[in-house]
Amino acid sequence: MNNINKKAKEPFIRTVKNSERSKMDILKLRIIAFGLSLIAGGLFILLIGYDPFHVYATIISGAFRSKMAIQATIKIMIPLLMSSLGVTLAFKMKFWNIGAEGQIIMGAIFSSYFALFHSDWPHVLLLLAMFIAGFVGGSLWGLIPAYFKSKYNTNETLFTLMLNYIALHVISFLRDGPWQDPGSSGFPKIARFDINAQLDKVFGVQFGWIIGLILVAIVFIYIKYTKQGYEISVVGESKATARYAGMNVRKVILRTMIISGGICGVTGVIQSAGSDMTLASSVAGGVGFTAIAIAWLSNLNPFGILLVSFLFSVLEKGSSVMQSTYGLSTYSASVLQGIILFFILGCEFFIRYKFVFRHKGGTQA
Amino acid sequence: MNIFLNFLVAAIFAGTPLLFGTLGEIMNEKAGHLNLGVEGMMAMGACAGFMGGFLSNNLIIALLASFVAGLFGALIYAVLTITYKADQNVTGLTLTIFGTGISNFIGEFMLTNLETNSLKLPELITTQISNINIPGLSSIPIIGPLLFQYNPFVYLGIIIAILCSFYLNHTKTGLNVRAIGENPGAADAAGIKVNKLKYINVLIGGGICGIGGAYCSMIINGGVWMSNSVNGMGWISVALVIFASWSPMKAIFGSYIFGAFNILKYYIPKTLFTLPNAFYDMLPFIITALVLVITSIRKSKENSQPASCGVNYFREDR
Question: What is the pTM of this model?
Fold first, then answer.
């Protein structure tokens, strides 16, 4: 407490808010940060005894070297892209939806009911039912925390996190009991979907990628040009302002989370019926968490999300090639993703703040 | 009676890694930082602890390595969120992605570069971390097995919990930390070095998480390295903080209760009633969600998160 009595001295460097950076400057800073992260990642690769240039080249060629490889990259990208778009809506509202993971799972569970027990329906009708069910499943899982947030201000970060695990164990419940594959002779797994319940392929990849691309445009327009999108931003900026302007904050929160969770739910449908061809407990497999990082990294811009999720899937596909050529674990993708994110997170500071050095003549504003 | 005793002992074993994670997170949250990187810091500690023990054949070095690794993870988080004001949620998640990634990566890297197909802790360490039998005390019926027959981690966890509780509730620094967690602006005005204390708390918290990770890698799999040994414990710990209402002492019992939930399915007599295993696995999360909802409905100030938790403090914003 005796610090107060000390003579106040202006620190050598202090930081102040800087809101006047041009878009070019921001882009430049981000590119520098990305470059630095590649250097840091390269140092890591060097440390374990490999040539960074070689490894990076392997990653990129691994993701693009053949038609098959490109298709596999796209396949990894679809769930990342879609769930990032989903959580973006919630984040715009400053609603920390950490529950994409659970919403993906619930979407997959709901749609799997139709895939498993109504596979005799006409193909189009069946897929339609699956997508609707997936949307409903995901949105229900998003609606629960939204309800409590809007009514009792329950912490949504922690609540959505809990719901992830509850959803995960719902799958293991279904897998061990009611939905266990009768043909698996007691081994706990859920049956492979009938071909009728699988998503069709367009250009060799399940058509989820088309939905993803359409969604990029829809989410962009929704956020930027619709009244509902505007309401989301206002609620995100300040609930009080929103109320003052006559918005029904509660309704906005609930509606946005229905859509956000719903999109994640549809991701679950695409992943289970398009890639896994069954309901596996790994249907979300950490995608929901990576999606949050991607959404943030792209500054909640749908086109940015398209770019970043593509980059992340290149890393993931490339790392699987690294495993086959160098015997390095595929976890290298997570390490590199982490390093990139750390650098961009750090660089954000230089975008939002600037340094002011102490002047000889005294304070200068 | 015997089954019940075994159940209690097993619950304490299962709850101990959670205790470390929870204590680490409490240290973070009390200083106003919601660190979602517990899982990552535990994974880093798991890897460093195991490899430290494997290479040095010394338990103390293993423990120190796990502490330092957790602390290193926390340092990344601290630099980004305290100094660079980065978003806490995203930074924490990234730390989890990075931490589990690097832990598994190094583990598999070691495996492929060794002649043997498996990584196993040296004999000396496995005996050191096996259950201690205190002569005399451990042979007392009931009390002996219940209190005096655990591995050193169990006692270490309780000691750290007591130290944390003392630090937060009975020292001046602890009081300052709690002030920062509630209102950093006011704390700063009162002359408290906000950033310095935040750093100290986040780093120590990370180190404690790291030790918890070492428990996962060194004990749970019987001294054999396996990927993903932390396997979600860090996330449960984040939940447990709510259940323990941000109190280190309550965290002891909270983590044992959660440990009990984890193993309940093996001890419920199947003749009595049968519920699906998944239900027991789900139980801790359902209960935590309920606790979260109930505390928010009651709006109790006593048992709620520190007010500034999750919000970065920027001096010029005051």
Answer: 0.89
